Amino acid sequence: MDSQNKPLLCAAFLVAVWTLSCASPMKTGFDMDPAADLSHYKTFAWVGPGPLTKAKSGMNTPSFISPFDDQRIRSSVNRTLENLGYWLAVPPEAADMVVAYSVGSEEKVRVYQSPEMVTSVYPYGGRYRYGGWHSTSSVSVQQYKEGTLSIELYDRKTEQAVWIGWASKRLSRSDDSRTVISEAVSKILQAFPSARGG
Questions:
Q1: Measured between alpha carbons, how far is 149 from 162 in angstroms, rounded to an integer?
Q2: What is the pTM of this model?
Q3: Tag placement on the chain: N or C end, fewer CB within 10 Å?
Q4: What CATH number belongs to 6-189?
Q5: In this predicted structure, what is the pLDDT of residue 97?
């Protein structure tokens, strides 16, 4: 390899590694009641003053959510469930299952250790020199916020949870809440079975 190109290739490699290490993919998961038969559910409603007030008492998180983001979450959940073949029940008391959501945020700390390639040149008699490549590392600490959205589905009659899905993501000031909410709801409910079967 040409010795003049070696520093450029190493720099490009470090930039690529740094970019990948800074990526923040959304993490998702779900849990369900193994005894629940989800194929029986065809309609849904939201937790409100009527159904499931007892089941949801004391479960509110202290995290603030704006009225606009509340509307975005509800609209996105409605749209996604309807695309899966479920119907928003009117009146709500006629629903098979009841939907709720929770949001939370947590301050976290991440420690980065990034390698730095250093070249050293050693004189060796007269005009001859040889160089050696070695790596050192620098450590930096970064504080960030991780946001979590969970979507909870309950049986309306028994008021028991039957399915809970969640998504978490490292948040930044540049995030657009509409995009993040849409992606989170879509990925969470991707694991929920379709009402059409199959």
A1: 17
A2: 0.66
A3: C
A4: 3.30.160
A5: 95
